[in-house]
Amino acid sequence: MLKALFPTAPLAAGGAEFHAPSIEEFFPPVVLFEGTPFELNRIMIIRLIVTLAIVLFFYFGTRRMTLVPGRFQSIVEMGLDFVRVNIAEDLLGKKDGTRFLPLITTIFFLVLGMNITGVVPPFNVAGTSLIGIPLLLAVIVWFTFIYAGLRKSPGKFLRNSLFPPGVPWYFYIIVTPIEFVSTFILRPVTLTLRLTMNMIVGHLLLVLFFSATSFFLYEWQEAGLFRLLSVGTFAFGFAFTLFEILVAFLQAYVFALLTTVYIQLSLAEEH
């Protein structure tokens, strides 16, 4: 199905062939440890590099904090304060916001770091463009909001989630299955697919525009005036690169925000 949506057949023009981007872009060959349980391809290596970079960023940014912060410490504090003030405490309050802040902060910066590699040479592909990382984070969020609800109100959480108060009893035949699917199935599914699909589409668009630029400018020897099309494809590619930077941030913000919202709903008084 995916190969039908993203065909790999080349387009011939003037003796050259233009190869459109395909879904195989996200399944690169193994680079290290082939044939072992630890084999790594380019995307896996990107994920490891991003994870290490985030750990080092916060380690060196917080190990010698001073009352009057330097430039690097200020950047780290600004990022941490953004998540704490605008996401965690804004929705959960100070007490619960502080309680779940490590998880929300980790999700935000991990997703942001994995997303931004899609526009960073020589990586040029997002670590979240394969479903593994988004799915793992969505499962963690799923367990977290269920844990939060059961710990806050073990006797009420499941009952009020599946049987909302104020609904006539005979409507529960319809309402309860809908609530079960929307709360316990669709939440992790939508978290996973929203992030993965955005990164896939963004990567394919960038590859399409910059591949077309190279094709018109260098590979199509008989292009003539058609070489001017490379200006347009490069302009679109540059514009979409800036847009992908915005999308990388927005997807990290949305993922962290929805995580907080789900926890907030689990902690709500009606539960």
Descriptive notes:
With 271 residues, the chain is mainly alpha-helical. The chain has one domain. It contains eight helices and four strands, in the order αββββααααααα. It has helices at residues 2-5, 42-62, 71-116, 132-152, 157-162, 172-184, 186-219, 229-267, and strands spanning 11-13, 16-18, 30-32, 40-41. The strands form two sheets. It has a two-stranded antiparallel ribbon with strand order 1-2. Helix 4 packs antiparallel against helix 7. The two termini are 42 Å apart.
Q: Into which percentage range does the β-strand content fall?
A: under 5%
What is the number of beta strands?
4
Order of SSEs: HEEEEHHHHHHH
The whole-number mean of residue pLDDT values reads 87
Number of continuous helical runs: 8
Characterize the biggest β-sheet.
2 strands, antiparallel
Shape designation: globular
Enumerate the strands of the largest sheet in spatial order, edge to edge or round the barrel.
1-2
Structural class: mainly alpha
